[in-house]
Amino acid sequence: MAELGVGSASADPRDIWQHFCAAWPLFDGTASGYWLRSELIEVFGIDDSLIDEAHADQLYEQLVSVLATPEFRPRALFDSFGIEVLATTDDPLDSLADHAALAADSSFRGRVLPTFRPDAYLNAHAPGFAERVDRLIVEAGDGAHGYRGYLAALANRRRYFIEHGAISADHGVRTPLTLKLSDDEAERLFDSALRGGLSAAERDAFEGQMMYQMARMSVEDGLVMTLHPGSYRNHHEPSFARFGADTGHDIPFAVGYTEGLRPLLNDFGTAAGFHLVLFTLDETVFSRELAPLAGFYPSVFLGAPWWFLDAPDAMLRFRSAVTETAGFSRSAGFVDDTRAFCSIPARHDASRRVEASFLARLVAEHRISEARAAEVMVDLVDAAPRRVFKL
Amino acid sequence: MAELGVGSASADPRDIWQHFCAAWPLFDGTASGYWLRSELIEVFGIDDSLIDEAHADQLYEQLVSVLATPEFRPRALFDSFGIEVLATTDDPLDSLADHAALAADSSFRGRVLPTFRPDAYLNAHAPGFAERVDRLIVEAGDGAHGYRGYLAALANRRRYFIEHGAISADHGVRTPLTLKLSDDEAERLFDSALRGGLSAAERDAFEGQMMYQMARMSVEDGLVMTLHPGSYRNHHEPSFARFGADTGHDIPFAVGYTEGLRPLLNDFGTAAGFHLVLFTLDETVFSRELAPLAGFYPSVFLGAPWWFLDAPDAMLRFRSAVTETAGFSRSAGFVDDTRAFCSIPARHDASRRVEASFLARLVAEHRISEARAAEVMVDLVDAAPRRVFKL
Amino acid sequence: MAELGVGSASADPRDIWQHFCAAWPLFDGTASGYWLRSELIEVFGIDDSLIDEAHADQLYEQLVSVLATPEFRPRALFDSFGIEVLATTDDPLDSLADHAALAADSSFRGRVLPTFRPDAYLNAHAPGFAERVDRLIVEAGDGAHGYRGYLAALANRRRYFIEHGAISADHGVRTPLTLKLSDDEAERLFDSALRGGLSAAERDAFEGQMMYQMARMSVEDGLVMTLHPGSYRNHHEPSFARFGADTGHDIPFAVGYTEGLRPLLNDFGTAAGFHLVLFTLDETVFSRELAPLAGFYPSVFLGAPWWFLDAPDAMLRFRSAVTETAGFSRSAGFVDDTRAFCSIPARHDASRRVEASFLARLVAEHRISEARAAEVMVDLVDAAPRRVFKL
After folding, report:
1. Is the pTM here over 0.90, yes or no?
2. Which domain holds residue A23?
3. Other C-beta atoms within 10 Å of A365: how many?
4. Is residue B17 a part of any domain in this protein?
5. Which of A93, B318, C240, C267 could join B305 via S-S bond, C-beta 3.0 to 4.6 A?
């Protein structure tokens, strides 16, 4: 919300909370507002009528006292939220020591899995790209230098992640472009990238070529490939300079999957066991591109409406746009991508209500039987994510 | 449906049917599922509760026995379906002998019309383009060679089609681009095309220039021009290599009509008697481009939601998107493009229900009177296609 | 409506009215139809059942007699419509004498404000561009020649408009492109533009650079900047040649705000007091670009659905698309852009009904309380336009 201001004057959490409570009206009708309200009521036991600026102090005290109870320790919440699997996204060179420790801890029975997230090693315009890649080749390579060593190191780290429980590789890319280049061309781009010499078009080509390579590796090692294109990152340079990445000014733009994904899908689209989950911030592609792609390619699954589209009306538009072409079986089911642990129940609850609402409409319109709708509902919530993410 | 697999192992129709019945749940919520279920129940008299995998054998026997009855002979179905006009799409060099025979057969009173479909003679990248064009010029030309002979041959075959009852020329093009080129430029592109020397951009330019020529001929000979752009044909090369065209992997992409159609519309958009019916697979153009174009140009009509968009929710989105700008009078009405004869009643039934549902909402919201809604409903179903397609 | 024909044979208003009444059925379901019917009934007191071709003569007499009454003098309507502020759009060199006279007239208490609309001085391909710019520099400059004199003259005229009550500067541009050029580059483009030497791309670059300058001036002088991109003006050349601009053949096309506005927003997006109201004819940008931009940049406000999108269903799509990301507080509220004085009540009434309908759905779905919905409703109609347009 723009009115919340970028950078609060005070770092005192009580002041921030006061400031936040004053801003409640700005959240009316927004996805964030629905989640936050649901979270306060359902998780923290706050009375709905107290959620306003006037009761900010009282709420603050209540939250502080609740957070100090044993029921609000992370593992207790993990249990009470009924979480079965939680996946983090991790740097390819991360030791995954925390994951190993948790997996070895017999007092914790949940699954917390790492996810291979190599964006910073594939985006040639990311700050520090060359140093990072050098370190990757040195630390994880097979002794080879240059492009060949780079590919080997990525494959090695994927294997390391799999050994630590990873089931997917996640890719935040600028566009859905994929490219199959000759080794020579790929090597030439790679060498240029290390010298910081790529144009904007070459940067996209290199990333597209690396998406092709990531798909090839996924076919080999079985990691589910998830793709998140179409966000103009760090749109406001002064905010980026002051606050860094992921500070609220990533803005979507129009992208094309049909032509962009063709090289990848031509070679791997029907590969046995390959799962490619496509996400988008451009909802025009739901009916035009994603549903037809998922309707044909056995590897392609429809990711849940994501980010700005992870909201009630947008989720209904998604279902309306894709179902008539791709049915329900090509959906990956709901996966929240929250960084707010306590919002997990609210987000799954919202998704389930919306899916149920969509199915209820089809039942009311005699387009699906009530019995089948009930089966589909359970499948979307439970079986689909297990099936698609190989859980 | 991706799960149905590409290429069944068995060619035994009973096995295929069994395989298909096992896949019923995948069709829930899809347009194909609605049509198939409606067809089995309404046309074949199957009980709804038997449509599942468990009753596959029983259904198979029932279908085989029903199909052997005289009521299921094509002409009997033509009558019982209440079809008045059925149009095929035909190669420009087709002799249309079957159409002539049927027209001469006094025992058949329906109208089965040929449609001039010259795609393979206009798309310079289609396999066999040069040979096909050579044959066209030799068999249907006026003795002239090259580009001039080509245009003459196309005009001649259009005339031949009209003599055999054709009322429209149908064009499946890559994009809505149209171009008015000088004769010299057009000739140069044509000569290059015959030598297989066109770049991708020149291929589009040649097709765009030929759409301009097709519109010019439609203005002269009165054939209704229908345009179907925006599908990436044969997206999956391995499937194309193995199974050929039209095997389920044509994927839509974003296209622009406003700039693309301008050359054609500047010269022919207000030409007396010219009818141009625009179809799309990119629903973003409904409100942005197609409705405004149809609102201004007397020649432009809105084609029914097509292919992936020929489904209940998508049809409602179409009406919602175009009506507030273009009203109802600029619609071409429903025309199914099925290759499944027995699905014709289901598809028209679906379309009529959706149109009625849209109008009912406007009545309920006091946006149109019930009396006018009833008139519009009949017009959309009956009068509009007759008027727009000059039937 | 295409059937109304371009250019009626008769200039007799009674004939035109007769012609128009015969066309009533074409307006069913359209925004124009809703406004016109509402206007006839609510403003002119016509009985709904008389609005048809058969009663055209009777209606004509009634309208003529009503229009002759004192209650239908412009100022009387201004009062009875409850208009508080009406803004015209004016040429930068307009003397604004009429505005001054009206402001000085103590018998009129409404506010009629000029709006700075410099399109014809910024679009280098507009006929007469060079002559117009020369005149601007001579009449309103500070003595400097060329680009510097041009900028000074524009700033001077903005100041003159502000002195005459203007609160905003309105920009109808081809695309949302903005550019920050060096003074040398800007000067070079400007000099080329005066000689008529700009390519299509350079014309866009020059306009984009001038949008950057207009934003800079808005930051300085406080005029609210409104942006209306995305219409292909004068699509049908023969109609333009015969009837001139604004004769019904401006057709929208796809545009991108995210990348286009970045240079402007990087420098001015968080500038204190700067208000940038974004309009669009491409509704795909509502959820993808405009809501995220308005959610981050304190200067960006969402303009009301405009032109083809200023209609009930389209307005509901707008609210559904933007609210879940940007809430209600980033909306500029409804501003009609009618050139038909008597349609003003109908247009505001339509907008209010639709906003209320959207809020009522959220209340029914327990997404907002009824009390808050009532507050939001008043804010959207009353406070938001005052706040955003600094009234």
Report:
1. yes
2. 10-72
3. 12
4. yes
5. B318
